[in-house]
Every structure is written in C-alpha cells, then in structure tokens.
Amino acid sequence: MSQEHLHICSHYQLVFGLRWFPLLGASTTQQARVLSKQYRARASVVIGRHFMCVGLSQKELGQKTTRISAAVCFAYLFPRGVHAAIYQLAEQLYWLVVVHEGTPIRQGDVLFHTLDQAQQRVHEFKSHYTTLVLQGETLSIQALLPLINPRLRAKAQLKPIRQRSWAWATACVIGIGGLYWSYTPRVSVAAIEPPVVIVDPYTTYWQQQARPVSNHRALQALLHYWQQLPLSLARWELSTSTCQIQTSAWNCTHEFKPTAETATVMDFKQEHPQHWRLTQANLQHIQTQDTVSFTVTGARAWHDMHTHQQQFLAQLQRLKPAFQSMVLKDPVVYGKAAVERARAQADPNATFPQPVPIFEQALHLKGPLRSVALLLDFDERFYWEKASLTVNKKTKASLKHSVLQAQLHGVTYVRN
C-alpha cells in the first residue's frame, strides 16, 4: 500500500506511511526542498541523528492542524541499533516501521492490508540487517500514544510546504500563445529545426576516466604485504610506510631510522630485500621504494543513495568503535570543472537532460593495523587510494592503539 493513514488524537493527528529519502552532505535543506517539489509533497519533516532524512506527506495540512509523524516518534525511542515493529491500526490495516540509529529508513514506514505482507517485508529487511530486532507484531497503537510527550511532538511535527500558484499567469501565457499561433503561417517544424543531440556530461566524463577498481582486493594485498614487512634491518628500524594507488599496484615508500650510532648504510644494503629500490640514504634516515601488485577486476562503479545509506553508511557506523578516528567528508560533484567545460564546448544543437551529478565522498580512517581487516567487507562499495603505516613501539596497546598504526584514505561514488 502507498496511501497515508491518519489517527486523530485529542490535540494532534498521527500520520502513518510517509515517504522517506536520505539527505547527503551539508545542503540538507536544499535537498529536502528539491525532493518535496519533485514528489509534489504538501508537508515534510526532517530528522537525523547520525544520518539525515526527510519524510514527505501528500496530504494537505490545514493552518491550525498539528500533524506528527508516527515513524519519528518510534525512531526516538530507539536511538541505537536497527529496530522494527508491526502495529495493527484497524481490522485490515497494519503499519510496519523500521528505524536505524534513531532514523526511519526508506520503505520503513509502510501500511499493509494483511499481517502476512508486513511479516514478509520484515523478513526482507532481516536479510539486509542481520542485527534487526523486532519489537513485536500486532501491537496496539494505544501503547505508543502515552510515550509521545510534547517535546517529542515538536520534533516529529510536519511543516507545510508553500505551493506557489501560477494558474493566472499560465492562463495568460496560454491565451497569448494561442492567438499568436492562430495568426502564424504553418511551417513544417522538421524542416527548420536541426537534429537534437542529447548529452549526459557526467556519464561521458565518468567513462573517459575509467578509473580502475581498488577495493577489497587492493586492501587485502596491502595488508598481506605489511604483515610481512621487516620492522628492523641491520640496526635500522622502520618508521613509516606510505603507499599510493597507481592503476593496478600500490607504490610504497618505506622510511627507516637508525637505532644505534654504529648503523651504516652499507649494512642496510646487504640485508634489505633485493627488489627494494634505494632512493635516499644518509646517517639520519634511509628511504626505499617497492611495488605491491593486485588484481584489477574492472572499472569503478557508483551506487544509488538508498544503497549508500542503508549499506555503506550503516556499515561504517558499526565499525567506528574499532578506529581512533573516522572522518566522512561531504560529497562533492565528481569532475565538476571538466563537466562544465564539456557543456561550454558542446554542440550548439546539443540538449542536456536534467542534471544528475555523480558525487564523490571521501573517507579518512585512523586506527590499529588489526582493525583494517574489518574493512575488507566493503566489497565493491569503496575504493582505496592512499594508505600509511606508522611504527611506534612506545604506544600502550589498547582497543584503538597498537605499535602498528594505519591510516587509510578512500572514496565512494553516489548517484541518485
């Protein structure tokens, strides 16, 4: 079912069945406004603890009507984890609500005619969220109402969306256009209009770049390499190892520092692996280079916002306790300058469709080397570009610290 349902209370109306959409980056207000216009919504509510999203309503909101979202009220009761519940609103009306980290998810505020349909949807959600907790089935909505206090009502209240009426201006334009058309000689449009060329500059730029995959295979190869990396050679200790992605290999630079005054470059040359290339050498430090190859399976791909929020961002949240820091940058348009140049240099007869940009979102991680193995589960959703390993034997080992500390930088791509 797709319709909304209203439950009338004493001082407000409780609405069920809103359409929820994720909001990415910093311009959440602008994104919510665009989505409201796109789906012709009459009212909306924005909520977010760790992730922002907007709920859209198709029902007209009166001037003195206080309408609140039931999904938001349920979400604030469970700020951690993935939770779901099935409420019976009427004899043949069931409401399924699913929230993640205190935020309703897409397709998680739905009405059904039968209990079997709602249970089937819960089963589908459990295949994606293995930690989902079902609070109950055929619950009564009366059990939820006492928990909705005034503070919660204020957070869950829907705001009306002002609709601009252009009916009068549109009628005038149509009338003038009709008069002009009636006095214009009929000429074949095909004879005077040049052929239209439709161009998607974002897809064109993406295909031109064809950036190779550097996902879990690349990270797995680097982890295997680091685990076998010698930490000391001939009274020289490894200080840092910095690696950068180059097509189908990591280009790594290792820096060693002396541990004794008797350490010499000649002794180091005799013990270091033969395939290492010595780039700098003096009494203070030695720098070497090496290459770590991995298998490239194709070009990179982007994902839709729903997959990005429900899989990638949710997985990051679960892994966050294992790292010292986890910084997810705001999304930026991939190749924005190149796309703008392509528009300026395009065929005069070319027609560009509604812009659907490809967003690139960067992630910076810092934590112990043992935690990096947890990132292998990202599969095709993330691509690594730079990594570094730091050795600090004075560090006291703990959950987020170890002698071997790793920093990783990578990106993911989103297109709605």
From TrEMBL:
Protein name (Swiss-Prot/TrEMBL): Type 4b pilus protein PilO2
Domain of life of the organism encoding this protein: Bacteria
